[in-house]
Amino acid sequence: MSQQLTPQNWTAPDLTRPRQMTVAK
């Protein structure tokens, strides 16, 4: 699931750790 990380896709918890978001999703 390689999705482009965009501020619109980011959620409150994801903003706290954007780096892990890339690995998780």
TrEMBL record:
Residue numbers spanned by region Disordered: 1-25
Ranges of compositional bias, category Polar residues? 1-11
Q: What is this protein called?
A: Uncharacterized protein
Protein's organism: Anguilla anguilla
